Amino acid sequence: MYTELFKLCGFEPDEIERERPRINKAFKILGIEEKDIERGENRLRQYLDVELLGVRKFLGIWMRELVNLVLAREEHDKVVYSDFPMELRPLMSMMLSTEEKDVYFATPGQIINMTIGQIFDKLTPFLEAGEENGLPPGAAHCALYQTRLGAMVKGVIPFPDLSVIASYHCDQPSEAEELLHEVYGVPVAHLDSCPDANWGDWPKFNDHRVRYGASQARKLFQTFEKVIGCQMTEEAIRATNKANAIYRLKFQQLAELIGHADPQPIRQASMAHAFFLNSMPTRDIEGKQEALEILVDEVQQRVDEGRGVVEKGAPGVFSTITISVDPSITYMIEQAGLAIRIQIPFWLGPWVLTKHPYRDWADMIGVGPCLDIPHSCQAHVTINLENCRAFNVDGVINFYPYSCREWTPTVMITKKVIEKELGIPVLILEGDSYDTRNYSASQLRTRVETFAELLRATKATKAASR
After folding, report:
1. Please, what sign has the CA dihedral across residues 368, 370, 371, 374?
2. pTM for this one?
3. Residue pLDDT, tens place only, 240-299
4. Mapping DSSP to helix (H, G, I), strand (E, B) and coil, where does residue 137 land?
5. For residues 148 and 130, what is the distance between their CA atoms, to the nearest angstrom?
6. Which parts of 379-440 are beta strand (E)?
7. Is residue 330 left, alpha or beta, with left meaning phi > 0 and alpha meaning psi from -120 to 50?
8. In sequence order, what DSSP letters do the residues of 97-130 get, joined into one string?
């Protein structure tokens, strides 16, 4: 009953038959029924560019990881979890250091979001279970961590032998993982930093901050070695840095290709599958690189042929909406006639490529929190401003995610700075990155359509005055 669905996710017929026993077992545990599969097929065709092989290959990696995740305890000796926004390099280095042991690595919240959420639209039972078991509603808990806790409590995915989490973005990962440790006895290793930069520090590196992050990385790896029984290797760290650099630079190429194209050649919801995969430690490194290379070539062909998902000459916007579970929002923006040039943090920007003097592996991990948005409030605002300038947008749709403690403090200051510095309008949309129960695309549509009319009128006036 799911053959067509898996074809849309890049599976070949022989792989579907070979994997059918595992898929059947995983879908039974997940409660995926025929009506869910039909809904999934419809959502894939409506919201994503499944006619592109690169998109289908990315979907295939996510679906394989979903099955692997559900069956992880049955098929592996050890299980290690992390989750967004933990960066990939420490996770991948640990994963590649376990080649001689049977250890499964995953970011379960993100896997469930990108499959059960985005494809099947069936997250609510996991969210409710998370709320009932220590992360109650109304307390601004991150729905990503409600989802992963709910999936474990319901017995859909196993509890891990170790959870590795970043605590420098906000307090939610650490709070949720402390609950996992205290109530369920799961060992937790934190990658900490000290995000206390002053306004004006960006984009400078604070040596104290880098060294502190490096010391925390060493402690994290020591905990991993003790709990899992694997030694970190320099070879794994070097392989991680190389693969990560290749992927990020290629993704940079894709984001810039899309951002400077007219018309917009691909739906931004399709880009989410490539972006979020770079925070998930899949062992299919070659498949991931191949999918990205294929997608770049396919998008370039669309650009060369002048094909797009919105009309040529449509007003271009910078959107901060990166909803991994709900593709209907970006789809609605595109249906309103707006070209989404770029979505934060899809474009990595020149600051990610900034040269620094740190060469020790731990120091290089410590540099991570000093780059991009985690650096400071100033960095957050400045990076948003730089996105607008780099892609010459006509307006901004700035997302206010109810429960994101890292993002929400900067929403109004970003709006004020962009409107003052660039003189372009900014629309703020409220919602949630991982929980669709309190909003919908239909509720937001009127505001977006009105904003689109404003941008079209402004663009026409500017064109007439030249």
Report:
1. positive
2. 0.95
3. 989 988 998 899 899 999 999 999 999 999 999 999 988 899 999 999 999 999 999 999
4. coil
5. 8
6. 395-401, 426-431
7. alpha
8. TTTTS-EEEE-HHHHHIIIIITTT---HHHHHHH
